[in-house]
Amino acid sequence: MGLARGLGKSAFLVNALILILIYLLVVSPALAKEPRHLIKLNKVSFDAPVKVFQDSPVTLKNDWGFSLHQTSISQIESGAEIARIQTVMAGQTVSLEFPREGEYSICYFLSPEQQPEKERCFSLNVVPLKTA
């Protein structure tokens, strides 16, 4: 009976090691190649730029309890507006990718009246993804 119990433990350890190896060889590199960045708009720092990787998915989430208005994305150096979203509903997410490195600003209004004191802006610093 002790031998059967010992074989059961060995089989379990072998299976566990195989699963760990599969994760390390298949899943982990896939995650490393495509880092994802979630930016919660109610939690973002307005003082320091948020660093994201070039050509990697970035998700903006409206975690305010209300809709945001006239959300704009602009490249700071050129001043060019890249995109504008009229309304981002509460809880809604917006997926983005930035093909060029550089600094970008994301601005939105907390009310539809677009009063300057109700505008929030933060900056993104898009950097190249270094591959090993």
Summary?
The chain is an alpha/beta fold. The chain contains 1 helix and 8 strands; from the N terminus they run H-E-E-E-E-E-E-E-E. A hairpin with a 5-residue loop joins strand 4 and strand 5.
Q: Report the β-strand fraction as a percent range.
A: 35-45%
* Spatial order of strands in the largest sheet: 2-8-7-4-5
For the secondary structure, the number of strands is 8
What is the CATH superfamily classification of the largest domain? Cupredoxins -  blue copper proteins
Arithmetic mean pLDDT: 84
What is the top-level CATH class of the largest domain?
Mainly Beta
Return the string of H and E elements.
Answer: HEEEEEEEE
Reported for the largest beta sheet, the result is: 5 strands, mixed
Radius of gyration: 22 Å
Rounded to the nearest angstrom, the distance between the terminal CA atoms is 50 Å
Low-confidence stretches: none
Structural class: alpha/beta
- Just name the CATH architecture of the largest domain: Sandwich
- Any idea how many domains? 2
Shape: elongated
Please tally the helical runs, counting DSSP H or I stretches of 4 or more residues: 1
CATH fold naming of the largest domain: Immunoglobulin-like
The percent of residues in helical segments reads: 10-25%
